[in-house]
Design goal:
The protein is mainly beta and 400 residues long. The protein folds into two domains: 36 residues; 363 residues, Neuraminidase. The chain has two helices and 25 strands. Strands 18-19-20-21-25 form a five-stranded antiparallel sheet. Strands 1-24-23-22 form a four-stranded antiparallel sheet, with no helix packed on it. It has a four-stranded antiparallel sheet with strand order 2-3-4-5, with no helix packed on it. The longest helix is centred in the N-terminal third of the chain and has 29 residues. The chain is globular and about 55 Å long.
């Protein structure tokens, strides 16, 4: 393993150089043409796959391997809740396209019955095997937590095993690993109101199930994501039920053991999942639908728009980008997963109309942000919806 470390470091350096050369070439071309990008910070838009052996997919998760490769997993099948829904994975080499999706987990039971799978979460601890968490069951009210591991970067996987003892595992978003090796995973249940809880594992220990932080479910919330701070605080952001219409937040000052009561963040929520990441420069980045469920012009259940926002303190947020927008019934951009790779770039994976998984690459250093007063998305400037549509129109004209 030690012999691999210099090679992996070299690969990471090569990957960073490739990105730098590409960005330098783009910058020179833009300067020569006197062109200012309408969506600064956006480097790449692509699909993880164009065709697949399943008609519907959802709930992406992603991880960077030690050799610089990316893995993206998601569930796919006839439709959500159908028994043929399995967990699929695709790989992106440092140089090259995504591989074809490959099934790595299903809901086939020992007696032959088949149940749908749900919400995969990839996690690579600092030490130990790559882990896939996922759920099996007829619905979110009845599912249970499963996991399997890989010792070869996700090329082969062990048998799926139940987490047991009431554990569900990270319900949608990646866990965080603290400096002392403690792993904190955000989870939730939907069988007795929407309730948030944390599953925690100290270094070398077993997973423990902590009590719900909203036991009375006054604010119905699920699917937390975590952001970390230099003073060791952890911020939890949660999806809420439609009647709330906002992202809920909670804070921990003791490594995730106890949490403050849930309260509203200024950002809206449309009863849909989102994800965030703490950047290497200390800022927080959030990928989410900046809308409520019934907001006009925001498409299917408010999932017709997908946004990027950043913050220094997790309280005051600035608009950075509109990634996608389409006000059309049945169409959606939803359930983003966000990671920052060792080269400093941010990768966002999200559901594209339930047909495909889209992959977007951002340079956080190039984002041109606009403060949001009272959580209102700006109507002017590079982060505005108007700028998004103008950029798309310009791109279309260039392609023609």
């Amino acid at each position: 393993m030690k012999d691999q470390q210099p090679l992996n470091s070299l690969r990471s350096i090569v990957q960073a150089i490739c990105w730098s050369v590409a960005l330098m070439g783009l910058s020179l071309m833009q300067a020569a043409e006197g062109w200012t990008p309408l969506r600064p910070g956006l480097l790449l838009e692509e699909f993880v796959f164009e065709t697949a052996p399943f008609p519907s997919c959802h709930a992406a998760t992603a991880v960077e391997l030690a050799n610089g490769e990316l893995l993206c997993a998601f569930f796919g099948g006839t439709r959500e809740r159908h028994p043929d829904v399995e967990i699929w994975i695709a790989r992106k080499p440092v140089e090259g396209p995504w591989t074809a999706p490959m099934s790595i987990a299903d809901g086939v039971q020992s007696g032959g019955d088949r149940l749908p799978t749900w919400n995969p979460v990839l996690f690579q601890p600092k030490r130990g095997a790559l882990t896939l968490f996922y759920k099996v069951g007829p619905s979110p009210k009845e599912w249970w937590g499963m996991f399997k591991t890989s010792n070869d970067g996700g090329r082969t996987w062990g048998e799926g095993r139940k987490l047991g003892r009431g554990l569900i595992g990270p319900v949608k978003n990646k866990p965080i690993e603290l400096e002392n090796g403690t792993v904190v995973a955000g989870s939730s249940t939907e069988n007795n109101g929407w309730r948030i809880h944390v599953e925690r594992r100290e270094s070398g220990g077993r997973w423990s199930l902590l009590d719900p932080i909203n036991p009375e479910a006054e604010i119905g919330a699920i699917q937390p994501t975590f952001l970390t701070y230099a003073d060791a605080r952890i911020q939890m952001l949660c999806r809420t039920r439609s009647e709330h219409g906002y992202i809920a937040q909670s804070w921990s000052t003791d490594e995730g053991l106890t949490w403050s009561p849930l309260k509203a963040l200024t950002l809206p929520n449309n009863n849909s999942g989102f994800d965030g990441v703490t950047l290497a420069d200390g800022r927080q980045l959030l990928a989410y639908n900046h809308s409520t469920r019934t907001q006009p012009g925001m498409g299917h259940k408010g999932r017709g728009i997908l946004n990027i926002a950043v913050s220094r303190d997790g309280i005051n947020w600035e608009a950075a980008l509109v990634l996608d927008h389409l006000d059309e019934s049945g169409k959606q951009f939803s359930y983003p997963a966000v990671i920052q790779t060792r080269d400093g770039l941010v990768h966002v994976f999200y559901t594209w109309h339930r047909d495909r998984i889209k992959h977007v690459v951002l340079d956080p250093a190039q984002l041109n942000t606009t403060p949001m007063m009272g959580g209102q998305w700006p109507t002017e400037g590079p982060a505005s919806l108007a700028s998004f549509h103008q950029s798309n129109s310009t791109d279309s004209q260039t392609e023609d």
